[in-house]
């Protein structure tokens, strides 16, 4: 069953990134127009987070489609060409310094921006083990693994076996990463207030964070990749992001800044 979808994905990977983003913009607006539930949730979530302007809403609609449309390029282009999409990086010096000291790294990467590229970018300097949750569509998993498992990148499922592999990688002094905003399964996770509303969140990052905090041989970092070249311009990378509108015209297709932020800084803000 993977033959024809793989052919289509490889064919799409040949297209220039701006073309894929243009297709993604159309896709994002199509879903927004077709699904009243998605439309209502998007508007409500943006308003609750402090983004009430129409410009930010339009950018979010387009970005959701672009995140899907750029997958063929990120999964099926040669590894070196994918890594070359990164135009600038900030905060990586701390990660490299930690590696030089022999520290293992815990990288938390939410589903924001071009999150798919972060593991591949990290793998240029270090081996990384990444936890993932298998997709609901069974035929998609082999394609996802094929696209994400690159040199120095190892995927392990988000189950007991995968967690053991993550701890083993940490003990070896390697980097591990996972998506902390995954929806917990039945009987998993914990309830917490999020923008004034109760939300179910995973606890895995807290377990690993405590392990990091208890052992100086480990360092925790948030990692994100943005499509906008100006995404982190003019802002201290250690400062909490503030709600603000950004013009969709500020994006530079193909420029993917990568930013790493110390996990303990975010933990202090959460406790404040």
Summarize the structure.
With 272 residues, the chain is of the alpha/beta class. The chain has helices at residues 3-13, 17-34, 36-48, 54-69, 71-76, 79-83, 92-100, 116-122, 140-148, 160-171, 204-214, 263-271, and strands spanning 89-90, 104-108, 128-132, 153-157, 175-178, 190-194, 197-201, 218-225, 258-262. Helices cover 46% and strands 16% of the residues.
Kindly describe this structure.
The protein has 272 residues and is α/β, with parallel strands linked by helices. It has one domain (3-271). The chain is 46% helix and 16% strand. The chain contains twelve helices and nine strands. The protein has helices at residues 3-13, 17-34, 36-48, 54-69, 71-76, 79-83, 92-100, 116-122, 140-148, 160-171, 204-214, 263-271; strands spanning 89-90, 104-108, 128-132, 153-157, 175-178, 190-194, 197-201, 218-225, 258-262. A seven-stranded mixed β-sheet has the order 1-9-8-2-5-3-4, sandwiched between helices. α2 crosses α4 (54-69). The longest helix is centred in the N-terminal third of the chain and has 18 residues, at 17-34. The protein starts with a helix and ends with a helix. Mean pLDDT is 78; it is low at 229-256 and 263-272.
């Amino acid at each position: 069953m993977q033959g024809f979808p793989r052919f289509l994905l490889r064919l799409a990977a040949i297209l220039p990134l701006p073309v894929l983003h243009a297709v993604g913009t159309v896709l994002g607006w199509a879903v927004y127009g077709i699904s009243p539930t998605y439309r209502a949730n998007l508007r409500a979530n943006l308003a609750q987070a402090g983004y009430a302007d129409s410009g930010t809403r339009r950018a979010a609609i387009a970005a959701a489609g672009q995140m899907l449309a750029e997958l063929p390029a990120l999964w099926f282009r040669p590894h070196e060409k994918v890594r070359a999409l990164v135009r600038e990086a900030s905060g990586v010096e701390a990660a490299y310094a930690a590696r030089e000291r022999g520290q293992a790294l815990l990288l938390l990467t939410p589903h924001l921006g071009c999150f798919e590229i972060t593991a591949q970018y990290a793998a240029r300097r270090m081996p990384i083990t990444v936890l993932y949750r298998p997709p609901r569509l069974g035929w998609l998993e082999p394609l996802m693994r094929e696209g994400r498992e690159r040199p120095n990148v190892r995927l392990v499922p988000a189950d007991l076996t995968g967690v053991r592999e993550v701890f083993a990688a940490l003990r070896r002094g390697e980097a591990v990463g996972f998506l902390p905003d995954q929806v917990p399964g039945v009987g998993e996770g914990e309830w917490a207030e999020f923008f004034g509303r109760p939300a179910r969140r995973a606890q895995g990052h807290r377990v690993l964070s405590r392990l990091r905090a208890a052992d100086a041989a480990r360092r925790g970092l948030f990692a994100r990749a943005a499509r906008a070249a100006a995404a982190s311009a003019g802002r201290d990378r250690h400062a909490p992001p503030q709600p603000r509108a950004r013009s969709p015209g500020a994006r530079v297709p193909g420029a993917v800044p990568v930013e790493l932020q110390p996990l303990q800084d975010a933990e202090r803000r959460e406790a404040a």
